[in-house]
Design brief:
Helix content: 40-55%
Shape: elongated
Number of helices: 2
Number of strands: 0
Structural class: mainly alpha
Largest sheet: none
Length: about 100
């Protein structure tokens, strides 16, 4: 009878070990599934067209944007308002005085 009880105990230990391995494999399978989703997302992102190049505001303001036949300084459309550049800084004034001896 001791032999059967010992064998029963060994089988229970082996079953507990196998159950732990099954749980570990299930956790690994979950991680593999998550990584598979990430790889699919990465592949989909790599197949997207490239984003448009950034717009340089200075390049748009150059003389190449003025249509031919338009004089400089004339607004392109009638709805535009022309604001001349006015300097806020005061100009230095020079005194041309000759010191008297």
């Amino acid at each position: 009878m001791d032999f059967l009880e010992q064998e029963n105990r060994l089988l229970k230990e082996e079953m507990a070990t196998m159950q732990a391995k099954i749980n570990e494999m299930a956790a690994i399978q979950t991680q593999v599934d998550e990584l598979t989703k990430l790889v699919r997302t990465l592949r989909a992102a790599q197949n997207l067209p490239p984003p448009p190049p950034p717009i340089n505001a200075q390049a748009e303001a150059g003389p190449s944007t003025i249509p031919k036949g338009r004089p400089w300084g004339v607004p392109i459309s009638l709805g535009e308002v022309f604001h001349p550049y006015v300097s806020e800084a005061q100009m230095p004034t020079a005194r041309n005085e000759i010191p008297t001896p």
